[in-house]
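User: For my dataset I need records formatted as: sequence, then structure tokens, nothing else. Please produce one.
Assistant:
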Amino acid sequence: MHPIVHCTVLPRSTRTCLRGSMTAVFALATALLWGFADFGGGLLTRRIPALTVVVVSQVLAVLVLGAVVLTTAAWTEAGPQLWYAVAAGVVGPAAMLAFYKALALGPMGVVSPLGSLGVVVPVTVGLVLGDRPNLLQAGGIVAAVVGIVLAGGPELRGAPVQRQAIFLTLFAAFGFGAVMALIAEASTTVTGLFLALFVQRVTNVAVGGGALLLSVRRGGRALPEEGFRVIRDALPALAFVGLADVAANGTYALAAQRGPMLLAAVLASLYPVVTALAAFGVLRERLRTIQAAGAGLALVGTALIAGG
């Protein structure tokens, strides 16, 4: 007997516990998917212009999602809520472009951790909607958020940061958090979620493609120096990045719908920890002491949230 399908026969406290468990499972799956997508995207941008990586990976995701929408007849669930998906599709690329620009201005050790503060947006939305964590969970949330920021390896000393870089980073963080809040409101069913994700990705491609065209007209590059062959050879990796990002949006929406958005947002926002650990495990990049401490603190926070 599946506990979620038949939870109406269970006591209220047990149903609440099961919903919370499913929220944690989906949210942690989101963190893994976003973390690996960011890791893969980071590797690809070493050979291919960042905007091209974003646009091509999203085009591949649109093709797969389009097939899913046709197969499941998800288009029959079109409604006003899809405007949330359109908004997420507009805000997402804008936030990503601002983040890339901020990284270029640097220093990355300040920009990257600040970008993680986007979790504040869905957390605030959850509080406004009535989410009230208990004392143990509240402590876990604080520990997890601080750990996420530290896992980015913040630079506490060094050259001053340009005001423009700070502004762009905070804009990007707000955008990332807004996408999380918007996509959670874009559907109420699984098939509706397929349609919402499809609409979001089509919008992503339109906005990102426009930005890429504008960049080329201003003298930017759309292709790597080696030409189209590099993109062709990288298609499997580009598809993984696009589909992992789509899947992460889907699992996050499911997490937010099945439990408190506040908890879903914090657990899903552990993805920078996943990216840092992937770089350590695959690329043998040395974790700074502050990053290792942040990863540990984030995991402690996760345990407290789950235990609450």
